[in-house]
């Protein structure tokens, strides 16, 4: 059975992806930062569905933690076949002129450097040039990368723009190594991350700006992620799926 590492998988899109992956035959590594109880609940749901999963705490912005995450994956499952770079953070809504360098650095360390470190470690085990059998990486970007998120979190939007660039460049870099790299750009999705921005009910406020007039669900994003990892997308790399209700 294939092994999938999902970062930031204790909640939201990551948790939905981890749970749905069992139906695709994956053994799952549920990465989390601090909420051990939530991560264990995701593992429990996977096991209740007949799947296999482990929870591994690791701060993706720290190189040593990322290395340990993949070492524990190899120790438990013996392989890595796919990675979903989902871990991401944002801060309270404010214009750029009010942001501290500490906030901006924290966002980029997790959202950008964390994704790059996780991809680096996954490549070491998946690349055919390293004796691997190939695999897939899906980066979770955001429609914020295209829209800019003015007056709210342009730092987060800029970090997701970097994820888009990473996706395109890495897809080309790894095309001959058996690794496909793609991304999803969620739009207005019902997740807890909006509370981090200081507006838990943000989806209800902005959904009228979405052509479909509703927010999306984490499961809808998870389906797109798992399709990109599937054999059905075997000739797809460097691509982006906007899961945004037409926005």
Give an overview in words.
- By secondary structure, this protein is α/β, with parallel strands linked by helices.
- The protein has one domain (3-243): NAD(P)-binding Rossmann-like Domain (Rossmann fold).
- Helix content is 45%, strand content 15%.
- It has helices spanning 12-21, 36-48, 63-77, 101-126, 144-147, 154-174, 193-196, 202-206, 218-229, and strands at residues 3-6, 27-32, 53-57, 82-85, 135-140, 179-186, 240-243.
- The chain has a 7-stranded parallel sheet, sandwiched between helices.
- Strand 4, helix 4 (101-126) and strand 5 form a beta-alpha-beta unit.
- Helix 1 (12-21) runs parallel beside helix 2.
- The model has no long low-confidence stretch (mean pLDDT 96).
Structural class: alpha/beta
Q: What is the CATH C-level name?
A: Alpha Beta
**Considering the protein shown, what is the CATH homologous superfamily?**
NAD(P)-binding Rossmann-like Domain
Report the portion of residues in β strands.
Answer: 5-15%
The proportion of residues forming helix, as a percent range, comes to 40-55%
């Amino acid at each position: 059975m294939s092994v999938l590492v999902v970062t930031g998988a204790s909640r939201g899109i990551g948790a939905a992806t981890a749970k749905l992956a069992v139906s695709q035959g994956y053994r799952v590594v549920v990465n989390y930062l601090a909420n051990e109880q939530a991560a264990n609940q995701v593992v429990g749901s996977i096991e209740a569905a007949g799947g296999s999963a482990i929870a591994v705490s690791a701060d993706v912005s720290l190189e040593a933690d990322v290395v340990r995450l993949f070492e524990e994956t190899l120790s438990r499952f013996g392989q890595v076949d796919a990675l979903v770079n989902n871990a991401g953070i944002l801060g309270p809504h404010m214009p750029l002129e009010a942001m501290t360098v500490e906030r901006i650095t924290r966002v980029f360390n997790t959202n950008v450097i964390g994704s790059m470190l996780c991809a680096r470690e996954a490549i070491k085990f998946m690349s055919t040039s390293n004796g691997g059998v190939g695999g897939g990486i899906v980066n979770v970007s955001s429609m914020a990368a295209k829209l800019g998120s003015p007056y709210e979190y342009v730092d987060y939007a800029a970090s997701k723009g970097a994820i888009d660039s990473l996706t395109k460049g890495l897809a080309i870099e790894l095309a001959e190594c058996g690794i496909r790299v793609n991304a999803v750009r969620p739009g207005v999705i019902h997740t807890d991350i909006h509370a981090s921005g200081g507006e838990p009910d943000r989806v209800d406020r902005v959904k009228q700006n979405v052509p479909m007039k509703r927010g999306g669900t984490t499961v809808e994003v998870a389906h797109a992620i798992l399709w990109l990892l599937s054999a059905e997308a075997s000739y797809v790399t460097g691509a982006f799926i906007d899961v945004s209700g037409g926005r």
